[in-house]
Specification:
- InterPro entries: LysR-type_TF_proteobact-type (IPR058163), LysR_HTH_N (IPR000847), LysR_subst-bd (IPR005119), WH-like_DNA-bd_sf (IPR036388), WH_DNA-bd_sf (IPR036390).
- It holds the Pfam family HTH_1.
- The structure is a single chain.
- By secondary structure, the chain is an alpha+beta fold.
- The protein has three domains: 77 residues, Winged helix-like DNA-binding domain superfamily/Winged helix DNA-binding domain (Arc Repressor Mutant, subunit A); 94 residues, D-Maltodextrin-Binding Protein, domain 2 (3-Layer(aba) Sandwich); 100 residues, Periplasmic binding protein-like II (D-Maltodextrin-Binding Protein, domain 2, 3-Layer(aba) Sandwich).
- Helix content is 36%, strand content 19%.
- A five-stranded mixed beta sheet has the order 4-3-5-11-6. Strands 7, 8, 9 and 10 form a four-stranded antiparallel beta sheet that branches. The protein has a two-stranded antiparallel ribbon with strand order 1-2.
- A hairpin with a 4-residue loop joins strand 1 and strand 2.
- The two termini are 35 Å apart.
């Protein structure tokens, strides 16, 4: 018998629809789910394509459900309620703690702002977040899930790629104006600028992509935390390699300026790490599936 599960829309689409239908606004739904209004709109559009019918009437006056949308809202609300009760019997009436080890900057910039969406889906799970320092193997002794920043190659561990972004050089607005940044039009123009260093985001791969046979910078401030380097960039201390999503709030506010359009593949990314022989508890699998379904 053919499976019907291929017809079930992804949960993050259903959650976005339920919030928008209940609140009557993509913007208010985005605020509740800690995502952007465009992300909610994109999820609704994907859901409508899967459903094969318009779920909302969009107009300048207000956002309202179509007849199909009204029927679907009841079904989705019932389905989400059932999912909240789908945990194993012994967990149905008990709260469950899920311990997650995360790199600090990933936690601040990516994960924590989006946690309300996970909590809305799994209210019985209490998340406990622990910091894991990249490359130093510093983390809480016992955690259920670990997200690592690195190459993704770890002996005896199963890894799943979560987020890998290209990098580009950027600096703070005041630094940009101080060094006449608009005149920086080619990679060679970085020669007389202060390059901020980090073993987590080495310059050499970007140099090679830009056609420069330059060694890794050997002098100047060095940061063993991406978040600290981002703060140094915004504080106008020099030029650093950044990622669009990680620096989006500063770029959008104009506090940080993209210096050159050349981007390179970073040797490091964010990976979900599991021990090969240690089965995950159901709540950990729920969390991983939720992470992999996000629009990063």
């Amino acid at each position: 018998m053919a499976s019907v599960f291929h017809r079930v829309p992804p949960l993050h689409l259903l959650i976005a629809f339920e919030a928008a239908a209940r609140l009557g606004s993509f913007a208010r739904a985005a605020e509740e789910l800690s995502v952007t209004p465009s992300a909610v709109s994109h999820r609704i559009k994907n859901l409508e394509e899967l459903w094969g019918d318009d779920l909302f009437v969009r107009s300048n006056a207000a956002l309202r459900l179509t007849a199909a949308g009204t029927r679907y809202q009841r079904n989705v609300q019932d389905a989400l309620k059932s999912l909240n009760e789908l945990a194993r019997p012994e967990y149905n009436k008990l709260r469950t703690r899920l311990r997650v080890a995360i790199p600090p900057t990933f936690g601040r910039q990516h994960l924590v702002p989006r946690l309300p969406e996970f909590t809305a889906l799994y209210p019985h799970i209490d998340l406990e977040l622990h910091l894991a320092v990249p490359f130093l193997d510093v983390k809480a002794e016992d955690t259920d899930i670990e997200i690592r920043y690195g190459t993704g190659r770890y002996p005896d561990l199963k890894t799943t790629k979560l987020l890998v972004e290209p990098v580009f050089p950027a600096c703070g607005r005041e630094y940009y104006e101080r060094v006449n940044g608009f005149a920086v039009t080619k990679p060679e123009d970085l020669h007389n600028l202060t390059l901020l260093r980090s073993p987590l985001e080495p310059w050499r791969p970007w140099f090679e992509t830009a056609g420069l046979d330059w060694p890794e910078p050997l002098t100047g401030a060095q940061f063993n935390d991406i978040g600290l380097m981002l703060e140094a960039i915004v504080s106008n201390q020099g030029v650093g390699l950044v990622r669009q999503r990680m620096a989006r709030q500063w770029l959008a506010a104009g506090q940080m300026v993209k210096l050159l359009d050349i981007e390179s593949v970073s040797p490091h990314g964010y990976y979900i790490v599991e021990r090969e022989q240690a089965p995950l508890m159901p709540e950990a699998r729920y969390f991983i599936d939720w992470l992999l379904g996000l629009d990063w």
